[in-house]
Amino acid sequence: MSITKKDVDHVAKLARLDLNDTEKDLFTDQLNAILKYAEQLNQLNTEGVAPTSHAMPLVNVMREDVAKPSLPIEKVLLNAPDHEDGQFKVPAVLE
Length: 95
What we know:
Layout: H1 5-14, H2 21-42, H3 73-76, E1 83-84, E2 87-88
Antiparallel strand pairs: 1-2
């Protein structure tokens, strides 16, 4: 299987990319090189190799969900540009 300039032009149109002829030639060559490498990988003997979803075994490393006290409201509002009654005050977005 190989990629033609027409294929690159079609994908560029789908992606709404405006490619010049030099870029189309470059991408055609690059995509064909990728396919050639993939064909080499297909020739490898993978019999007896278990399928994996990740190269390294993954373990859930998240901490326990423990409730902690919140920051005091004075400290939360310390850097707020404007606040009122313990809440952030922002400009109105609706008229």
